[in-house]
Amino acid sequence: MAMTLKKVNDFLAGLPMTIVAGVFLLLDLIPHLMEEFGGTPAHLSILPFDPAWVTVIISGIPLLYLAIWRIIHNRGISKISSALLICIAMFAALAIGELFAAGEVAFIMALGALLEDATTNRAKKGLNKLIRLAPSQGRRIRDGKEEMIPAEEIRKGDVLRVLAGETIPVDGKILTGETSVDQSIMTGESLPVDKTAGDEVFCGTINRFGAIDMTATKVGEDSSLQKLIRMVKDAENKQAPMQRIADRAASWLVPVALLIAILAYVFSRNIVTAVTILVVFCPCALVLATPTAIMAAIGQATKHGVIIKSGESLEKMGKVDTIAFDKTGTLTYGRLEVSDVIPFAPALTQTDLLALTASAESKSEHPLGRAIVTRAKEQNLPLTESENFKMAAGKGICAKVSGRNLFCGSEKYLLEHGVTIDEPIHRTLETLRTEGKASILVADKDTCIGVIALSDVLRPEAKDMVARLHAMHTDIVLLTGDNQTTAGYFAGQVGISEVRAELLPEEKVQNVEDLRKAGRSVCMIGDGVNDAPALKTADVGVAMGSMGSDIAVEAADIALMSDDISNIPYLKRLSNATVKTIKFSITLSMCINFAAIVLSLLELLTPVTGALVHNAGSCLVVLIAALLYDRKFET
């Protein structure tokens, strides 16, 4: 029975039936206007019944259902809602035969509910995508034999083997082997992290090079990825749906409206006056103020490639005083490019060094090697076929190019092969580190002949964007999984003074919570899976849409589909303007209601004219919101 009532209610409250209700209300309005202004009888209708009855039934039943549901299920004073007040006004109007007034208040409320629903529906697919990242199986070593088992059967202490390209099934510690692990799912870092025996690895991260044997330390619900999933769930549950301003006000609107209506009847002995007061007291314009302004703002934002998923997030964005940025893929493009080519040999040019190194790295699968080869091809440099290519996972490569025995890799790798690294080279490497760059040393036999540095690429608009946010008195914080040196360098480039680096996802969440506990209203901006919990925990989450992780986009309240972070100041200004528009519309609607009540007490309004004034107030609120759609904001 309850399910049937719910289905009927949802059908009547839907857009098609609300349009039908509006058409029949208009059919009833025309003869009323003719009577009020031309003296023609009101019941001038081509229908054998009053058209307003259709509106009352279609829009009134969902309203009555909502009022009764809240009386039964809500607690305390929240049982008294705006729906209850409008139901009282509707039944009072019906009792004295004012069908148009009854239909009008029900229809305006139904329209407001549709507008609000359109602004508050959120996508919920992100969590499912995050769950699908969890590895389904692992390779266990037992009695010297390998066996593939489901991930849920892995136990703490089990020895596992992970081959190149495979996903690490649980958290653990490497026993043997050396590799590079793509930890972007956890930390957002664009560079794979070199790992060797004794180092920790995390569930869901990807082993890029070389086989490793590891012992499981955290399995099942204790693994890092499962914690990530739980954090997104917890943060999702903390997000309460937006409570209507009209409902918060209804706790005093209902008793006040009833009291004024009763007193008006006692003193005037005119039931029409009492019903008119109930009609004009209905907070329909108040109900429309928030969703119409939000819909206009969402429409404008969409024109600029900014997707706002809910009205609640837009309202909160207008109150944000602190914006926390992830680095990789947000302030930067999240891709590695060659930034410096520094030869140490006197007769060696930058072009020669780049061509030699690219030739040696042409068979490498490491992201740094591929980036070097890409740069050489962009410059149309001739590459020579390498011989005797060998790769040491997580360290470097060696190859023979044009008779030269080249070693390309880390300082440790070159030292292992007897290459001398003198003090000037050390100083150069230190300088590159302070600039947040990764370095590939290049040696010919036992002599270091140069270094090639690679760096993530800073977005050119980042510095100006940060300056404009500072001008709007907004604090900026950098929260990143990158090391402190890299984070500090990029923060200095764009003008961010508050930097918190080397953060895992749970530590980003903790930092966001700490900022909120300090009384700040926080917006988090990120692009990766690792940012999803922090995006959910913040008051407002903004994701980079076109290149960002789908999970981050789904977890966020707002998505920048063009990946243009210069839209952040625009978004802040739009949100501020929306909040001001909502406050102005609410104030205006309250003033109109107050004036209508006074006119009703003076018996200058009837239920029909009162409904028209009530309708005019609602239309005025919609018009004010529409002006927000075409307002020009700096972008």
Backbone structural class? alpha+beta
Terminal CA distance: 53 Å
Helix content: 40-55%
CATH homologous superfamily annotation of the domain at 334-457 = Calcium-transporting ATPase, cytoplasmic domain N
Assembly type of the shown chains?
A: single chain
How many whole angstroms does the radius of gyration measure? 33 Å
Query: In percent, how much strand structure appears in the residues?
Result: 15-25%
Question: Order of strands across the widest beta sheet?
Answer: 10-22-21-20-11-18-19
> Which consecutive residue ranges, at least 5 long each, have pLDDT under 50?
120-126, 238-243
What's the mean pLDDT score? 81
Query: Count of DSSP helices?
Result: 24
The CATH topology of the domain at 334-457 corresponds to Calcium-transporting ATPase, cytoplasmic domain N
Largest sheet: 7 strands, mixed
Top CATH class of the domain at 334-457 = Alpha Beta
Quantity of strands, as a count: 22
Shape: elongated
